[in-house]
Here is the input.
Amino acid sequence: MAGAFWCVVEDDRKGRPKKVMSEVLGEATRLGGPAEALWLTDKATDEGLKQLGEWGATKIWLLEHAALAPYRGEVWVGAVAELAAEESPRAIFGPVTSRLRELLARLAARLGVGLAADAVAFAKDGDRLVATRPVYAGKLLSKLTWARSPWIATLRPNVFRPAEAQAGRTAPVERPGVKMPEAQMRFVERREEVSTGLPELTEAEIVLSGGRGMKGPENYVILEEMGAVIGAAVGASRAAVDAGWRPHRFQIGQTGRTISPKLYMGFGVSGAIQHLAGMRTSKVIVAVNKDSEAPIFKIADYGIVADLFEVVPELTKEFKRLLEK
Ligand SMILES: Cc1cc2nc3c(=O)[nH]c(=O)nc-3n(C[C@H](O)[C@H](O)[C@H](O)COP(=O)(O)OP(=O)(O)OC[C@H]3O[C@@H](n4cnc5c(N)ncnc54)[C@H](O)[C@@H]3O)c2cc1C
Here is the structure.
């Protein structure tokens, strides 16, 4: 079957693709490609274009226009739909991020094709592609395929093997003349995200999650300190978010972010099913809880029954000692 695998680029809003794109491009290449990057931005950088080439993009479709920032679904979807109608890609992939989750759902509706949201695996079956995605809060895995192309899917970060970067590899850049649709929405207020200086929650290889057991917003500083030592993101349970201790963008779970880090460490998190829905695919799970009966211990690889306020400073001290060696 002809047609390329388009990989819609998630960037850092400063002209650099996020590292999760190496996973999306890597998977598109493994599925037979050709893997082509589709980058919508108000400002691309040479460094960003070079990075996409090194991650295996065989071509970069660059839609660079002032109307593309800040993100507005109706503008992006119109531009991508027009280009897809002209170029007939076989598949359109993107990582699970706030923007691309919305964009690709809108695009699937606009093109009248199926969407595999939050895919965790793909397999080729002759000319078909079969996607695996968790359902029922991660309790079951379902397999699905598409009645027709383009096969649209969002890929869960930290699940797919990243492409091996090939230094110096470049990709031709094509700037298609796509009409920018009129924005239906006007921004009346914008709030900039305050950077924590720690990795982004859905991309981080290590995530420290604080629950109601943290007792108050002021205590998250001990998790941030540990995060700074080991390069971890700090997330939270819904109980902590509902209490106003952390903003919603840090919430892990069914109504928050889904994460799949190499290491998840829960502190004062009981392990409610809705929390597990967002982190149960973590590779190694560590739980620290005062209550030995807490449900999180049922899925934890390592558990410490103890007061987190004693454990966290000790762990931070030990991590520092080990990493300073
Ligand atoms: C529709 C719906 C959607 C939901 N979505 C989400 C979601 O996306 N994410 C989510 O997290 N929840 C979600 N929830 C809420 C979920 O059911 C739980 O209420 C929530 O996860 C509990 O958060 P918690 O574990 O921090 O708090 P608790 O369940 O109160 O647990 C706190 C834990 O901290 C331990 N603890 C207390 N002090 C210490 C200490 N000093 N040291 C060590 N341990 C200590 C306690 O033993 C306890 O196990 C949802 C619920 C519903 C109904």
In short: The chain has a mean pLDDT of 94. The two ends are 54 Å apart (CA to CA). Residues 211-213, 237-240, 251-256, 268-270, 272, 274-275, 278, 288-291, 294, 307-309 surround flavin-adenine dinucleotide (CB under 6 Å). The first helix runs from residue 20 to 30.
